[in-house]
Amino acid sequence: MTGLDLFDLSGRTAVVTGGGGHIGRKVAGGLAAAGARVALVDLNADSLEDAAEEIAGVGERPVTLVGDTSRPEGADAIVDQAVRALGRVDILFSNVGSGVHTVPEELSFEVFSDVIRINLHSGFLMTQGFGRHMIAEGIRGSIVSTSSTCGALAMGRGNFAYSLAKAAVNQLTRELAIEWGHFGIRVNAIAPCQLDTPGVLAMLDDPDPSGVSIGEHLLAGIPLARLATAEDMVGPVLFLASDAAAMITGTVIPVDGGNLAANSVATIRRPATV
Questions:
Q1: 17 and 69 Cβ atoms separated by less than 8 Å
Q2: Every domain of the chain and the residues it spans
Q3: Which residues are catalytic?
Q4: 3-state SS of the chain: helix, strand, coil percent to 5?
Q5: What is the distance between the alpha carbons of residues 150 and 46, in angstroms, rounded to a whole number?
Q6: CA–CA separation, 168 and 187 (whole Å)
Q7: Angle at Cα 13 formed by Cα 88 and Cα 79, nearest 5°?
Q8: Strand order through the sheet with 37-42
Q9: Hey, what CATH class is 3-193+228-251 in?
Q10: What is the spatial distance between Cα 55 and Cα 133, in angstroms, rounded to a whole number?
Q11: What is the C-alpha separation between 40 and 42, in angstroms, rounded?
Q12: Phi, psi of 28 (to 5 degrees)
């Protein structure tokens, strides 16, 4: 295959966890538009139905599965239901995530454990479950996880638990790439910078501890001078899921507008103002 054919997912199936959320539904729509048959997984049935209706406008209406992927019994049920509904699973986009903004000295063990469970346990259980399926069926599949730039460099601002979980997702990606490469299973991740979620947009004008607005502070470290969007995640995931990335595994691709490329004391050029 050459050119755009490399990105064609016709005849393949994909599972997207966190499928009712901001990133999940956009990426699922991209996979469907590329020809894949998709199953969406989420805890929230209403969000799933909204996402399924949205995606039906660009491709086949996805299968919807409600379940808690962060606990073994829920994860096992989702793997079984997805395989029965799709027949086989070629692509997993592991995209469940949740965080808190609590400084470490005030973080309770219960809240810390919940953040680790939601971000890391779900990723482990889903990749393990669908990895087992791919190995048993001889499927040369692709697994893509959602990490974060805070899994590579420290963020502060109370991101402690979330950052630890995403750093673990990065290492999960590398370890599984080594363990499963000989099965032909590729394991990669994307690392977005701050996204323009409703919660983030609502606090952009709030001051940070130095008195600078949160929005100004966030943009100061992004050379492309804007927040990421859910749509920005579609191309990188589609690439990693497709034959265009056939020789790529064990990578964490920043989707961050240059954020991780910038040294902490870098001077980022901005257009001159009149």
A1: yes
A2: 3-193+228-251
A3: 148, 162, 166
A4: 45, 15, 40
A5: 30
A6: 14
A7: 50
A8: 63-66, 37-42, 13-17, 91-94, 142-146, 186-192, 252-255
A9: alpha beta
A10: 26
A11: 7
A12: -60, -40
- CA gap 23, 195 in Å, rounded: 9
The CA distance from 163 to 174, in Å, is 17
d(CA 228, CA 210) in angstroms, rounded, equals 24
Nearest to 188 by CA among 242, 251, 235: 251
CA angle 20, 203, 194 (to 5 degrees): 55
Residue type for 220, please? A
Tokens representing residue 133 in the block: 């399926």
Structure tokens at 233: 């995640």
What is the residue whose two structure tokens read 């990669």? 188
Measured distance CA(39)–CA(124) in Å, rounded: 19
Local confidence pLDDT in tens for the 274 residues of the chain = 677 899 999 999 999 999 999 999 999 999 999 999 999 999 999 999 999 999 998 878 999 999 999 999 999 999 999 999 999 999 999 999 888 888 889 989 999 999 999 999 999 999 999 999 999 999 999 999 999 999 888 878 778 999 999 999 999 999 999 999 999 999 999 999 988 888 778 777 777 777 778 778 788 889 998 999 999 999 999 999 999 999 999 999 999 999 999 876 666 767 765 4
CA distance 87 to 133: 11
Query: What is the DSSP track for 118-175?
Result: IIIIHHHHHHHHHHHHHHHHT---EEEEE--GGGTS---TT-HHHHHHHHHHHHHHHH
In the chain the beta strands, taken as DSSP E runs, fall at: 13-17, 37-42, 63-66, 91-94, 142-146, 186-192, 252-255
Q: What global pTM score does this model have?
A: 0.92
